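Re: weekly structure request thread

Next one in the queue (282 aa):
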Amino acid sequence: MKKVFGRRTRILAATTATAGLLLVAGCSSDDDGGKKTTANGVELVKGGQLTTCTHLPYPPFQSEIDGKVQGFDVSLVDLVAKDLGVKQVVLDQPFENFKTGGSLNSGQCDLAAAGMTITDERKKNVDFSDPYFEATQAVLADKKSGISSLAGLKGKKVGAQAQTTGEEFAQSKGLNPVSFESSDALLNGLRTGQVKAVVIDYPVVQGWLKNKANADAFQVADNINTGEEYGFTLKKGNTKLLEAVNKALADAKADGTYKKLYEKWIGPYDEDAASASPSATS
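Done, posted below.
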């Protein structure tokens, strides 16, 4: 694991926050003199706000738009913050910091929302919310590469985002993918010819291909259902906040808010496929 402050941690205003964009070297002190406060019985790491760790950019789940972090994950966590009577503030950090539970255990954030797949290995370090999204992996390739399937990646220069299940999946298929720090860097690597194809979460591809120039040059060569589900992560044993997160997800699913947000950020919503849980198919 990298040092928590191996790079400058960015605190950004989420959609419900009013603060401007800040750059800091660490965590700021609490407004109430460093004491932890509670909202609706939930203890938070900083008074008056729900602090969310993420790794930017990862559209459509979270990305910086007009100076604010916005996206599907952000909108869902906003619902939790609203229930708690606080605002959401987002911290941009390396993915591994909160995947391993480091940022949560050190009190930098209350939860992490980063399109993170629920796995048994990660459950050793963090508690996951109920699943809120079912994801598939996609093979995105240059149309001139001749790649038309997962099998076609053999012998080709392939990319994947570091520390993700996409990278793990590619490795499990005998590939040796070039690692990129973020989805943005990964897709730029494909665009600039550093790699001929990438293995990446399909919802990210959906948004990227809405750009005509991208769609003209690149295509989905394969779509693989890996059975992945996304969840928000919390410090182990943070039962009250976990209950609040799960309640907000369930309420959003029941009153139609989830569907509305899904269609805004992701696309058409398959309600039948999503009826068993707060997640939906992409």
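The first helix runs from residue 72 to 84. The first strand starts at residue 9 and ends at 13.
Next request, please.
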